[in-house]
């Protein structure tokens, strides 16, 4: 998306995703208004704003025309602008990634009558990477942490994370920014600062300055270092977009047309099937729908997909031809003697709760011999980014479980197997957490700290009274050696190998084997849980 001008020493041209040929449309028809929030103002106003936006052929020209915050002459802004200008490859990658999403975001901001500089916020937040995940557990283009996402109506469960949903997260981000704008009496710089560090942190500094008789604008508040740089970064990027020639840069044109359309699926659907129905690769479908991090959409909704403009009608027509079982690629399994929901789920490489949802079973429901259950007929091979995102979700759940446990004092006669049963932790996981082997002996009175020490992101479960056995076993279950690693749990799927899992998580096979005490000949099984330490923010 970015190229150096003739005055610059090198040329940097980005090539974004292929955008479909423009489809002639009537700007006052309902199809156009699908790209304008229907709950934000009167119908006529939405149409008028859509018409104003459509007068541009280049989306960046439309963006520049809506800039309202102004250019601030401040050394901090100059510093950030100079950094961006020295790294055109970063801007190139970021605006290339923005291509499928930026038109929608600009249209939503315009429909609310907000400054279009806000459309540049995802550049600063996530570099327009929908799978971005920070050490603070923020996710998506707009980098919502779980609590704030829930506060603004973003559903988050095993199937779906609304923080990565382009439509829902954009709505939530603009809701939050409008709220902050009101909280700080119409000061957009304070609103943006509060988006980064929270409204309470900004309000506290405003009160301190008021009490001391000092100015209460952004530039005079003592905010966290990250926030003090965050607002200048936004202003600097807006300056580069507005006046690229000033820095020897030139942005390539981005077509001012919708890239995607929102399509109702009418219920849960296997995403590999959806990709086939729309003529897309599975990876392309997930790139537009990054909120879904499993093989299918969420059974409880939302029941829609984002598809490239021009593919929606084909998808709808093809969808009508499918039976419910074809939508979910399921087959029938006759329950045998000794089967449980958990054992059947493990056999088919799917979590027990998914099997229950497929069959409308409550947690307390019993299954009987010869009953037929719907089971996944195959598990879609998901793109690595999707599997990595799913692993991070599983890892966060594991961290919460570990943090909820207390110190266990070893009783006389206790073994690791006995402690594992008492604490509800798998014996291998327990041994790994405390740096021992499953066969190592425990000592009466020994304290096993199964919680996490305050302030850390990773569980630091260790044998609190350490002994030779624990020190000897520590290498086999080595915890992360830097603050850039996060502990996650990966659930093995059918067809997985140690090599394929290592590639997904971007770790080495040797480390994966060491963390899980596996030999080179070990075979991994569907449903098995593997521990790994991956880079934060991946």
Provide a concise account of the structure shown.
This protein has 538 residues and is mainly alpha-helical. It contains 24 helices and 11 strands.
Write the layout of secondary structure elements.
Elements: E1 2-4, H1 30-33, H2 43-53, H3 59-65, H4 75-86, H5 88-98, H6 102-112, H7 121-126, H8 146-151, H9 166-183, H10 188-197, H11 199-212, H12 225-242, E2 249-251, E3 260-264, H13 271-278, H14 282-288, E4 304-308, H15 312-319, H16 324-328, E5 330-334, H17 341-347, H18 352-359, E6 372-376, H19 384-403, E7 407-409, H20 416-423, H21 427-434, E8 447-449, E9 462-463, H22 468-473, E10 485-491, H23 498-505, H24 509-515, E11 529-535
Helix pairs in contact: 4-12, 6-9, 9-10, 10-11, 10-12, 13-14, 17-18
Your description of this structure?
This protein is mainly α. It folds into four domains: 2-251, Lysozyme (Orthogonal Bundle), CATH 1.10.530; 260-325, no CATH class; 330-376, Roll (Membrane-bound Lytic Murein Transglycosylase D, Chain A); 384-535, no CATH class. 42% of the residues lie in helices and 9% in strands. It has 24 helices and eleven strands. The two termini are 23 Å apart. Residues 3-40, 395-406 and 451-483 have low confidence and may be disordered.
